[in-house]
Structures are given as structure tokens and as C-alpha cells.
Design a protein that fits this description.
Chain lengths: 162, 764
């Protein structure tokens, strides 16, 4: 199959690669860029494990062609921690028990990150609604909801401490 | 003290940053990609297989079929009925026929289409009734399994007829009811995957997503005809198991065979559809129950008949059917129990162990029936349960040894928290609450392969750097075993958790642990870790004793210091003691083991080996529901869940395990079901197999009940399975409380509820 040149800005780094037109963004992230933090749970758009941010909005990278992300910004789970520090959403998922096996976690965290960017103080229902595309089989979601609520208060908490 | 606090999982950071490496994340140089050819037929003879066209496809590097691995195997010594690939017969849609490896997944997929298989289609048995009715020996799935019955057991403890008579004579009640449980499956978020690397000199390393690396190791030795010492099995991060990754799968054998054939690394990564064929989930079950309750609420007798549709191979099937009978006991005080169990082979994917293994179908029936019996004798359902509590340190009628017992406390906790007494039978039509209980073994007292070997060994190494490396064969699959190992060692040694590094589940490095099944790890590997930590602590104490001029027995370790008991001011640091110790004898090494005590291992009747646990966990739940009688739609508004885990070593992970169990039970109660048509799985995907999203999942409030088990590490018992079975009948009982109808078939769908309401109207 004919290959196309695609330029992606992934976690702030510009990458240009030649890829067949039928390949998914998930496949290119994992196989070509070795960013294996983004998971393939179904390759069918059902589970949300492959969620990444495209220009800040959560998308299912298994359902999207890499070519259609050309010249756009992609943020994966690897792009959230800065200077050796976990992002508040990552920290909260860890400390509040929002993950168990960890396989849905990258997608879940990316979706939660996007939620808190657009809605800094979500209700429980808004959290459950925003994460309803991300399936988890371990937690029953209880501690995931707590983790997102905790992350929402985190910056405020830090302000109070300083 | 870290025990009893909320310790975030020690392997959390790699999971939240994407650094955690699961099997499909592994990339070895020069790696090939494997794919499996599966049967399109539910039952057929293989006349011929021609792989020559596939082998000629550019990019294809190897093809293997049944003749490459003819050795029979199976997880149970009495169920060696599988080969890696079907040799003369396929037994379900999805059964493995051949495997290919190629330079890309796409080429491997294309190659599968070039393999020519000639089949002679046979009649398929898709229900236990059909399968058991077959007199034609040539059609039985396995020639030595007469009329497709894998195994049947008939147990009778006490005298049930006498028990039923006693119930009736006292003015109590006896009921007979039938219950149906559909086939459900684990659906771990991570599909099965593995990578094999052939290392020349006759050695192979396999990285695989498994709960039981040790049993995979054993089976590979048989199937590959290699010594175990030439095979290394490593478990990377595992993205969930729930029982579904507890034995050797074809792709694991195929990866090794193809790696050997090509001298290149080979990876297999299942599609989601393949996960449903690999299966090994909970069998479809037909349960008939007769229970007697005396006027005063005492359960006098239980008679159960269980028929399980186990699919095409034995897998853990014999264990599953035995658990369904054995664990009628050990939750309540039941003096008379009769059990007839049939495990039947059919032309569907093989079933295996799933969270709450064997107990769930019967528990749904029993707890539903108990609710009806309570109503019949005019007793509150919670009071009736309390009335039948066991005493700690009891041997049940079928020889199960109960040590600690917190079921009554669990019931009291959820009654109080849910405001049970003000809600049960007192809410408006359409709203209701229901209660149920459950329990589970905290580690099977008998290993799968009977031997005198320890069930767990853990070793510890400490060197100059002061770091404590714990080597364990236990398989972390998301439930927190590595965290628990670290906590136990740190607690026993009186040191910071941050000093501990866990090296786990690598057969070349770590001592044997039997695996993450039967909720055994905290209890068994935990006890082994505690013993190893105690041993190494005593080494430090002996060195410290010389420095302090004390005897080692008088020393304690706390907060990184060692000091004589009651004299914390005369302390030396952990590091000082460590250096003194290393000066005397070099690097510190210690090990601990765990072997179940003989008195926990059960009776001597046929089938007595399954059911005995080294301890039992207990759970009680109340569910509150709102039912719309016009549509049959209902919501579970909340679940209150109490779980007796002995001692909660880690509040955060115990809660997580209980919440996960409740949620998984709930999925089975309200929606999950595998649908088959002529043996073919009709919903092998996450769109069609209904796994609840966050929006559809209710709040779960968890209460931890502690009973401090006399033999558990720091008193701990299991937390990961015992709660699941209670959720289903709790919801069914709540629906009854809300609208007065009984649903005895799962899932509790709106269609079934509407039908039951209609029938109720017809009757009245």
C-alpha cells in the first residue's frame, strides 16, 4: 500500500513518518513511535484503553487513521508527567487506588485529564459521564471517581499548603 | 506501621505513567508475529491439513500444527484432554488448528487464509441435555468420557430427609426451586499475549500474561518435551485475569514452537474476539435446590443438584463442580447436605475458573431461596441469616475447617449501614432492598498437583546498599500482591516501605509460588514472606545484640531502629546492624515457606480435596433498587458491602478488591451473558458483551470486618473473591422486595421482570 508522509506533534515533539494510509493512530504510536503506554484493548472503539488527546480532546486512537492526525498535536499518557513529577490526575489515580491492573489506566487518566481541563469542578455524574467510554473491569469505578474528585481539588490543596 | 493503613500500590507509578510493560508492549529485535487458525465448526473431524500454500507466502517464517506438539495436557492431573492444536478433531468454534508466524501481523493473517483444512462435520452438542443423551460413542467429545460427562459426584452428609422432616414437623418450611445461570466470562482489559525467545543451546524464555507462571512452566516442559530447567517463564505486568489466565494456552506453546523453528522471537497478541474463544469463564449452570428451615429459623437440610455446561475440555471443570457442592457449607451451620453434581462436556469454548470459582451459581439460588423461606416462616431475612451463623473454629459436616468467622458481623454492619430495618418491606412499591451473603476459600488447602512441596517460597536478599530485595513467584495481576509482600516484609523488619524492591514471577530468579488463583496469595505467599523477613531480621538482631550487649530475643525493630524491648533510647540503626552483619558473613539471604497444615486439608471421601481452604473469608451485602414496573427497567441505587478479610493489611487495596468483586457480580446479575447459536459465540466483542460503564455502575460502600485469623499473616485472609457471589442474590432479593416478583434466571433483565409481573397479575 502507498505510504504517506505524516507529521505529528506527539507530547510536544514533532515526528514525521511515512506510513500506509490505512494504519490507525494507535498502531503508529505503539509500533512506529514505541509509545506503548497507550493500550489496545479491543481495536474496535468499544473499550477506551487507546484514548489519547488530539489537540486537547480525547479520541479513540484505534478508530482514527494516523493520517488524519497530520499536523495536529497528540498527547499520550507518556506526555503528562513533567520534570519527573506526576500530573495531579496520575498522582490521584495512584494514591486513591484508581487503578488495579493498570491496563485501562492510561486511557482513563487521559480522559480524566481532558475532563478537568474543560470542567475543573465536575460533579460525580459529570465524572461518570465523561469516563463512560473507558471500560474498567477491576475497580467497579468507585475509586476512579474518587481519584478524579481528588485530582480536582489537588491544585487548590497545593495552594493552601504554600 | 504500614499494616492496616492506606498504602498506594507500590507498582502504581509505572501504571499511571505508561511505563508499565505488558506482554504486548515487549519488542525484541528481529521479532516475528504469530496468528492462530481456529475452527469454524463446533464439532468436526479433521480429514487433512495442507499448509504448503501458507508456507510459500513471502514473509511467512513458520507454520505449526497438531503434529508438532502431540503431547496431551490439562491443568488438572485428571483432565489431560487437550493438545496445543487439534489433531484429529475440533470441538468448538474457535478451537485451535494451526499457527503461523510472519514478519508482520498482516502477513500472518493472510497466511491463515491459505491453510487448507478439510473437515467432516459432526453433530454438535450445545446443551448438557443433548450431550448427556448421546449413546453413540464415536461422537463423544473425548472417547473416555462416557456420554460426555466429565465427572459426576454424589455426596451426602448427615441425613437430608430427616432434616426436611424436622423442618416440617416444627412448623417451618421446605422449598424446592430451580435456578439458571448463563455462561459469563472474565473479559480482562488486556487480551492474552506472549513473546517467546529461543536462546539456542536448547533454551527458551517466555514472557506471558498469566496468573499461573508455575503451571505454565510445568506444562511447557511436557508439551515442548524439554526439561523445566531449560525453560524460563516470566510474567510481565498483567492487565487483569479474574481467573481467565490460570492455565497454559495454545498461543504460549505456539510461540515457543515457532521461536524454536525460526530461531527468532515470536509474539502472539489476541484480538478481543479471540479472548472470548480462549474463555475458561464461568459455566452455564442449572441448579436445583431444596432447603428446609425450622420454625425457629434454623436451616435443617439442603439438597442440591448442579449441572454445569463445561464446554469442550476439562480445564478446571472438576474443581468447579466440586466447589459448587462443597461451599454450600462453611457459610451457615447446616447439619445435613446432599449434593449431586454433573460436569458435562459440550461443543463450546472450555470453561474454567472465574472469580468466586464454583460458588456463584449455587449461592445465587441458595440466598434467593433463603429469602423466600424467611418470608414463609415470618422471619426477617437478616435475622434468619444471623440465626444460622457458625462458630469460629468449627469443622463442617463435609470436613471443612473454619478458623476465624466474621459473617455475623458483616450482616450486622450492612443492616445498620443500609437502615435495613426501616427499609425492608417498608418502602413504596417499586423500591426495595435485598440482602445476601457469601464466602470463599482464602487459599485452597490442596495444590492442583498433589505433593508435599510448599505452596509458596519467598526469599530476601540484603546487601551493602541497604535495599531489601524480595524474590517471590507470586503473580501480581492488579490485585496488589507485590504491595502486600513489601508491606509484610517492611512491617516484620521495622523498616521503611521505600527500602523494598520486589522481583517477582520469573522462574529463573524467583522461588516457586503456585499462582494467583483460589485467593491464596496474601495468605500463603504472605506467610512465606513474613517468615523470610523474620529470619533475616533475626540475622540482624544477632549482629545488633553484640553491639548492644543484649540477647537477640530481647530486641525489637521499629522505625529503622533496633533496640531492647521497652528501651528505645538504647537503639542502633538498621544500617549499623546491617553493616555489622555483612562484615561477619557477607550478603544477607533468607527464605520462608508456606505449606498448609494437614488439618486444613479436608476429609478422605472422593472429591474431598476441593473445598478445603486454609481459611475462609465472609461477606454480606444489601442492595437497594428502583424498579419501573411499566418497563421492567431497574437501577441498582446503592450497594453496602461488608467483607471479613481477617485483618486488612492495606485498607485501600482491600476496599478495591471488594468493590471490584461487587461490581463484577453486579454485571453478572444485570447484564452479562454469552450468547450461543449452534455452538457459535454470537457476542464475542465488548459492544455485544455488556460490561457496565461508569455511568451504569452504582456507588458501592465498603465496610471491612476484621476477625484476625489465627494463621493468616498478621491475621489476614482473602479479599479478592468472597464478595462477588453475594451481589447477585442481593439484587434479586431487592427486586422481590420492590415489586414482589422472583426472578430465578440470570441475568435479571427487564424482559424477565416484565414477564414475571405479567405472571404475577395472572395469578392474582
Amino acid at each position: 500500500m502507498k505510504k504517506e508522509l505524516v507529521t505529528l506533534t506527539v507530547n510536544g515533539e514533532e515526528k514525521t513518518l511515512a506510513t500506509a494510509a490505512n494504519r490507525s493512530l494507535l498502531n503508529v504510536l505503539r509500533e512506529d513511535l514505541n509509545l506503548t503506554g497507550t493500550k489496545q484493548g479491543c481495536d474496535d472503539g468499544d473499550c477506551g484503553a487507546c484514548t489519547v488527546l488530539l489537540d486537547g480532546e480525547p479520541v479513540l486512537s484505534c478508530m482514527m487513521l494516523a493520517a488524519s492526525a497530520d499536523c495536529r498535536e497528540v498527547t499520550t499518557i507518556e506526555g503528562l508527567a513533567r520534570e519527573g513529577k506526576l500530573d495531579r490526575v496520575q498522582a490521584a489515580f495512584w494514591t486513591e487506588g484508581g487503578m488495579q491492573c493498570g491496563f485501562c489506566t492510561p486511557g482513563m487518566i487521559v480522559s480524566s485529564y481532558a475532563l478537568l481541563k474543560r470542567n475543573p469542578d465536575p460533579s460525580e455524574h459529570e465524572i461518570r459521564d465523561a469516563l463512560s467510554n473507558n471500560l474498567c473491569r477491576c475497580t467497579g469505578y468507585t475509586k476512579i471517581v474518587t481519584a478524579v474528585q481528588h485530582a480536582a481539588t489537588f491544585e487548590e490543596f497545593l495552594d493552601k499548603q504554600s | 506501621m504500614n499494616i492496616g493503613t492506606r498504602v498506594p500500590m507500590t507498582d502504581g507509578p509505572p501504571k499511571v505513567t505508561g511505563q508499565a510493560i505488558y506482554a504486548d508492549d515487549l519488542r525484541l529485535p528481529n521479532m516475528l508475529y504469530g496468528k492462530i487458525l481456529r475452527s469454524p465448526h463446533a464439532h468436526a473431524r479433521i480429514i487433512s491439513i495442507n499448509t504448503s500454500k501458507a508456507e510459500r507466502l513471502p514473509g511467512v517464517m513458520g507454520v505449526v500444527t497438531g503434529k508438532d506438539a502431540p503431547a496431551k495436557y490439562g491443568i488438572l492431573p485428571i483432565g489431560h484432554d487437550e493438545t496445543a492444536f487439534s489433531i484429529d478433531r475440533v470441538r468448538y468454534v474457535g478451537d485451535e488448528v494451526a499457527a503461523v508466524c510472519a514478519t508482520s501481523e498482516q502477513i500472518a493473517e493472510e497466511a491463515l487464509e491459505l491453510i487448507e483444512v478439510e473437515y467432516e462435520i459432526l453433530p454438535a452438542f450445545v446443551t448438557p441435555e443433548e450431550a448427556m443423551g448421546c449413546e453413540d460413542e464415536s461422537l463423544w467429545l473425548h472417547h473416555d468420557r462416557k456420554r460426555n460427562i466429565e465427572k459426576q459426584y454424589h455426596h451426602h452428609f448427615g441425613d437430608v430427609e430427616k432434616g426436611f422432616q424436622e423442618a416440617l414437623d416444627s412448623g417451618g418450611a421446605v422449598r424446592f426451586d430451580k435456578y439458571y445461570n448463563p455462561r459469563v466470562t472474565h473479559v480482562p482489559m488486556e487480551p492474552h499475549a506472549c513473546v517467546a525467545n529461543w536462546e539456542h543451546e536448547g533454551k527458551v524464555t517466555l514472557w506471558t500474561s498469566t496468573q499461573t507462571p508455575h503451571y505454565v512452566h510445568r506444562t511447557l516442559a511436557v508439551v515442548l518435551d524439554m526439561p523445566m530447567s531449560s525453560i524460563r517463564v516470566i510474567k510481565p505486568f498483567v492487565g487483569g485475569g479474574f481467573g481467565g489466565k490460570s492455565e497454559t494456552f495454545t498461543h504460549e506453546v505456539a510461540a515457543c514452537l515457532l521461536a524454536k523453528k525460526t530461531c527468532r522471537p515470536v509474539k502472539f497478541n489476541f484480538t478481543r474476539e479471540e479472548v472470548f474463544y480462549a474463555h475458561r469463564g464461568r459455566p452455564e449452570q442449572y441448579v436445583e435446590l431444596k432447603t428446609g428451615v425450622a420454625k425457629d429459623g434454623r436451616i435443617t437440610a439442603v439438597e442440591a443438584k448442579v449441572v454445569q455446561d463445561g464446554g469442550a475440555y476439562c480445564s478446571y471443570g472438576v474443581v468447579t463442580i466440586l466447589y459448587s457442592g462443597a461451599l454450600i457449607a462453611a457459610l451457615y451451620d447446616i447439619p445435613n447436605i446432599k449434593f449431586d453434581g454433573y460436569r458435562v462436556l459440550t461443543n463450546k469454548p472450555a470453561c474454567g475458573p472465574m472469580r468466586g470459582h464454583g460458588t456463584v451459581g449455587v449461592r445465587f439460588g441458595f440466598e434467593s431461596q433463603l429469602d423466600m423461606l424467611a418470608a414463609e416462616i415470618g422471619m426477617d431475612a437478616g435475622e434468619l441469616r444471623l440465626k444460622n451463623k457458625l462458630k469460629p473454629n468449627t469443622i463442617t459436616v463435609n470436613d471443612l475447617r473454619v478458623t476465624s468467622y466474621g459473617y455475623d458481623k458483616c450482616i450486622e454492619k450492612v443492616m445498620e449501614a443500609s437502615d435495613w430495618r426501616n427499609k425492608r418491606s417498608k418502602m413504596p412499591y417499586g423500591k426495595g432492598v435485598g440482602m445476601a451473603g457469601s464466602h470463599y476459600v482464602s487459599g485452597a488447602a490442596n495444590s492442583i498437583i498433589r505433593s508435599k512441596l510448599p505452596h509458596s517460597t519467598v526469599s530476601i536478599k540484603i546487601d551493602y546498599d541497604g535495599g531489601v530485595t524480595v524474590y517471590t513467584g507470586a503473580a501480581e495481576i492488579g490485585q496488589g500482591t507485590e504491595t502486600i509482600h513489601a508491606q509484610i516484609v517492611a512491617e516484620e523488619m521495622g523498616i521503611e516501605l521505600s527500602r523494598i524492591r520486589i522481583v517477582a514471577a520469573d522462574s529463573a530468579l524467583t522461588p516457586v509460588d503456585l499462582g494467583s488463583y483460589s485467593s491464596r496469595v496474601t495468605f500463603m505467599a504472605g506467610n512465606a514472606a513474613k517468615e523470610a523477613a523474620r529470619d533475616i531480621k533475626m540475622q540482624l538482631f544477632r549482629a545488633a545484640a553484640e553491639l548492644l550487649g543484649e540477647s537477640p530475643e530481647h530486641l525489637v525493630a521499629r522505625d529503622e531502629k533496633i533496640f531492647p524491648r521497652d528501651e528505645p533510647h538504647r537503639s542502633i540503626t538498621y544500617q549499623e546492624a546491617l553493616l555489622a552483619c555483612i562484615e561477619q558473613g557477607g550478603t544477607l539471604i533468607a527464605k520462608g515457606t508456606y505449606t498448609p497444615p494437614p488439618e486444613s486439608q479436608g476429609g478422605s471421601f472422593r472429591g474431598a480435596g476441593v473445598g478445603p481452604g486454609v481459611a475462609y473469608s465472609y461477606a454480606a451485602q444489601v442492595a437497594e433498587v428502583t424498579v419501573d414496573p411499566e418497563t421492567g427497567l431497574f437501577t441498582v441505587d446503592k450497594i453496602w458491602a461488608a467483607h471479613d478479610c481477617g485483618r486488612a493489611l492495606n485498607l485501600l487495596t482491600v476496599e478495591g478488591q471488594v468493590e471490584g468483586s461487587v461490581w463484577m457480580g453486579l454485571g453478572q446479575a444485570v447484564a452479562e451473558e454469552q450468547i450461543f447459536e449452534n455452538g457459535k459465540t454470537m457476542n464475542p466483542g465488548l459492544l455485544e458483551y455488556k460490561s457496565a460503564s461508569s455511568l451504569e455502575s452504582p456507588p458501592i460502600e465498603t465496610f471491612i470486618v476484621e476477625t484476625i485469623d489465627p494463621e493468616g499473616p498478621f491475621g489476614a485472609k482473602e479479599a479478592g473473591e468472597g464478595s462477588l457471589a453475594a451481589t447477585i442474590p442481593a439484587v434479586a432479593n431487592a427486586i422481590y422486595d420492590a415489586i414482589g416478583v422472583r426472578i430465578n434466571d440470570l441475568p435479571l433483565s427487564p424482559e424477565r421482570i416484565l414477564k414475571a409481573i405479567e405472571e404475577q397479575k395472572k395469578r392474582s
